[in-house]
Specification:
The protein is mainly alpha-helical and 197 residues long. The protein folds into two domains: 29 residues; 142 residues. A two-stranded antiparallel ribbon has the order 1-2. The longest helix is centred in the N-terminal third of the chain and has 38 residues. It is globular. The relative contact order is 0.10.
Length: 197
């Protein structure tokens, strides 16, 4: 009789031990949300994240090259022609006297070329070159809009003489300013990241 009771007790203990892990495992499986078992990273979402992370740096590099080439070309055109023509374009804006216009006409084309080369080289020259480009284009746009709203029929002077100031000039220089602001923001952001690293 005692042997049967002991055997029943041993069988009960074994059944309880073997069944307990099963109950615990089943409970954990039921508590785990089904979406966590079946969800995998979407290839479309991964591709979109990858694209966004790569498109902006590529766009900045492309804008930097385009702006650098434009500045170099603009400086070259002004140096190719007699400086008196560029001085006349400056005088048509009626903001500086003749003596200052002559100095600007002789020196500014070289400055444009230096800024353009710095944009193309990039590296440590990029932050100051990008900021200088943005400031120059902001000033150019201000003067162009000022002359346009005043109804002046003058040459833009951006790429040498003979280029009339029209709404197309405003759109072009406005687009260049937007690109320059993006490059300057990116350059300053990269410099800040390096300083914090």
């Amino acid at each position: 009789m005692l042997a049967e009771v002991q055997r029943d007790y041993d069988l009960g203990q074994k059944a309880r031990i073997t069944s307990t892990p099963t109950v615990v495992i089943t409970y954990k499986l039921r508590q785990q949300p089904w979406s966590e078992w079946t969800s995998y990273p979407s290839s479309k979402a991964t591709w979109m994240t990858f694209s966004r992370s790569k498109i902006l740096p590529v766009a900045v590099v492309a804008l930097r090259i385009v702006l650098g080439a434009i500045f170099i070309y603009a400086g070259y055109i002004k140096l190719r022609d007699p400086w008196q023509l560029f001085a006349a374009s400056i005088m048509s804006y009626e903001i500086v006297p003749v003596s200052v216009a002559e100095i600007i006409a002789k020196a500014f084309p070289w400055f444009e070329i230096v800024v353009g080369v710095a944009l193309l080289i990039g590296w440590r020259l990029l932050p100051p070159a990008a900021v200088t480009t943005a400031l120059l284009l902001a000033f150019f746009n201000f003067m162009l809009w000022r002359a346009f709203l005043q109804g002046k029929e003058i040459d833009c002077g951006c790429f040498g003489p003979g280029e009339a100031l029209t709404w197309k000039t405003l759109v072009r220089d406005g687009s260049m300013l937007a690109g320059a602001l993006l490059v300057a923001w990116w350059a300053l952001l990269g410099r800040r990241r390096k300083s914090l690293a």
